[in-house]
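Fig. S4 source data, part A: sequence.
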Amino acid sequence: YLPGRFSFNVKGGRCEACQGDGTIKIEMHFLPDVYVPCEVCKGKRYNRATLEITFKGKNIAEVLDMAIEEALGFFANQPPIARHMQTLVDVGLGYVRLGQPAPTLSGGEAQRVKLASELAKRSTGHTIYILDEPTTGLHFEDIRKLLGVLGRLVEQGNSVLVIEHNLDVIKTADWLIDLGPEGGSGGGYVVASGTPEELVQVPESHTGRFLAPLLD
């Protein structure tokens, strides 16, 4: 079989009853549409012939149902695949399933997928990365991993601009720009800028006030 056999987007290997979606949409006239598992493939998205093909005892549906961290071990002897899996784990996405639909990812998760894609490329050292609250929903251990990845980008000569409210991230920055003094219509002005140590010396900075105990 060719690689297209395992694609949801073309005929051949996918379940034609649901066209590879794994679900069937039931239109409700006065309520939101309801999605139910496909009765033919039972939500596995592929036809029977495709599911009979296995690698290390698992078919494609079972592989795509793996969390990335599990897949890292599963593909340990496939360096090109394992390298990409490791990059996703490094940015704190080890819990995401390989086959998880992109629309179900949060904004922060989607940013980290893009970041992992960039990390897999050869660095030029002349790139600026702009991230909007990439730590949203992350456990501290995953935040620590993400900070390590951002540090690697900076060490390679790139610049990383992060919009963030998490103080554990803010305190690691080389340079801070604090906008305020309040949120919404009460803000929009540069209250202070400088290193974390300099910011805590500015009385008008709310960020500096909460940051100070973390720098002691």
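Fig. S4 source data, part B ends here. Residues 140-155 form the longest helix (16 residues).
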